[in-house]
């Protein structure tokens, strides 16, 4: 017998002879532990657990690739800034490239809503239909 079983048998012996609150509490606990549980695991429980473990491994791989991508982007940005001699103090953001949109506010709003609609369509209809 191991140490835990010896301890349990000693507690059971003292619980049957004692009349205190501790002895009754131990007796209730041991009686509850001797009963079989009222629920049964499904046959596919093991498969579901294994599938969740594999999904977590995949998620960890995906997270690693994301961090590699972020680090690569930062390294590329720093390298391009250093190689081009970009100066932050002389940086003047010019929105002149987008001035043509000032005359077409409806086009800008339509384009934005169209792209958002395509994303929603992809998420709700297309991906579930192909099983992703």
Structure report:
It is a single chain. This protein is an all-alpha fold. It contains 4 helices and no strands. The chain is elongated and about 90 Å long. The relative contact order is 0.03. The model has no long low-confidence stretch (mean pLDDT 80).
Layout of helices and strands:
Elements lengths: L2 H15 L3 H14 L10 H40 L20 H26 L2
Helix pairs in contact: 1-2
Largest sheet: none
Number of beta-strand segments: 0
Would you tell me the structural class of the helices and strands? mainly alpha
Taking the alpha carbons of the first and last residues, their distance comes to 52 Å
Oligomeric form: single chain
Basic shape: elongated
Mean pLDDT reading: 80
| Unreliable runs | none
How many separate helices? 4
Sheet-strand content, in percent, reads under 5%
From the alpha carbons, calculate the radius of gyration and give it in angstroms.
33 Å
Summary tags:
mainly alpha, single chain, 132 residues
What's this, in brief?
With 132 residues, the protein is mainly α. It contains four helices and no strands. Helix 1 packs across helix 2.
């Amino acid at each position: 017998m191991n140490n835990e079983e010896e301890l349990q048998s000693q507690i059971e012996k003292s619980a049957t002879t004692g009349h205190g609150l501790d002895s009754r509490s131990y007796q209730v606990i041991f009686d509850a532990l001797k009963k079989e549980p009222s629920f049964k695991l499904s046959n596919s429980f093991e498969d579901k657990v294994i599938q969740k473990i594999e999904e977590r491994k995949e998620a960890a791989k995906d997270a690693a690739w994301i961090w590699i991508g972020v680090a690569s982007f930062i390294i590329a940005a720093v390298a391009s800034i250093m190689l081009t001699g970009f100066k932050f103090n002389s940086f003047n953001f010019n929105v002149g490239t987008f001035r043509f949109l000032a005359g077409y506010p409806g086009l800008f709003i339509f384009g934005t809503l169209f792209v958002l609609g395509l994303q929603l369509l992809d998420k709700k209809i297309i991906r579930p239909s192909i099983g992703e």
